[in-house]
Amino acid sequence: MFVFGNGESRHGLDINKIKGIKIGCNAIFRDFKIDHLSCCDRRMVQEAVQSKINLSTPIYTRTDWLRYFRHDTNINVFPDLPYTERTIRPDEPFQWGSGPYAVLLGACLNDDDNHLIGFDCWGAGDGKRFINNMYKGTKNYQVDNYRAVGPSYWIHQIGKVIECFPNQQFIFYNNEDWEMPDMWKHKNSCKKTLDKLHEI
């Protein structure tokens, strides 16, 4: 199972050459064929539907948006969160983003290793101050010099997925100098450099 975020670390990676089940987020469908698409933003769901993305590709989104896509048979609801004790705001399902939901979806559809690419968390550019996204400056995305959003929610949410699926492995691929968040460091998770992808 391969799960792709849209962090800029995956720049230049030809996802079509990777063999396996592929889950992607938002605008990834513009460039690559994937098997499952995670879209929290209603505008991204609309774009995916209007682009006539392969009708056999399931698109997952929030329950709140289903009424807008009643006639689209490939629209699905995200899986329920795998834990019930929710004491802080990042635990509210509506606060989850497309990336964390894609990781959860991978864990729910899989019982083996999860290979995660493009989950950078940190901002880009000088001082990591700016938005880090492959599609920044394009339709439905912020401009290139938009200030990076703090990653604390994403870190917490993906950390909860790793914690709730202890029998699965979560392998993050990124650049050598990328710092893996402490909350992602469990016995069932690890970091590898992007060049290790060819060994799978």
SSE topology sketch:
Blueprint: E1 2-4, E2 22-25, E3 36-38, H1 42-50, E4 59-61, E5 75-77, H2 98-108, E6 113-117, H3 152-164, E7 169-174, E8 189-193
Parallel strand pairs: 1-2, 1-6, 2-3, 3-4, 4-5, 6-7, 7-8
What does this structure look like?
- The chain has 200 residues and is an alpha/beta fold.
- The protein has one domain.
- Helices cover 16% and strands 16% of the residues.
- It has helices at residues 42-50, 98-108, 152-164; strands spanning 2-4, 22-25, 36-38, 59-61, 75-77, 113-117, 169-174, 189-193.
- It has an 8-stranded parallel β-sheet with strand order 5-4-3-2-1-6-7-8, sandwiched between helices.
- α1 links the parallel β3 and β4.
Short descriptors:
200 residues, alpha/beta, 8-stranded parallel sheet, 3 helices, 16% strand
Order of helices and strands: EEEHEEHEHEE
Largest sheet: 8 strands, parallel
Query: Looking across the biggest beta sheet, what order are the strands in?
Result: 5-4-3-2-1-6-7-8
Number of strands: 8
SS content category? alpha/beta
| Count of structural domains | 1
- In the predicted model, the low-confidence regions spanning at least 5 consecutive residues are none
> What fraction, in percent, of the residue positions are helical?
10-25%
Q: Kindly report the average pLDDT value.
A: 92
Radius of gyration over C-alpha positions, nearest whole angstrom: 16 Å
Percent in strands: 15-25%
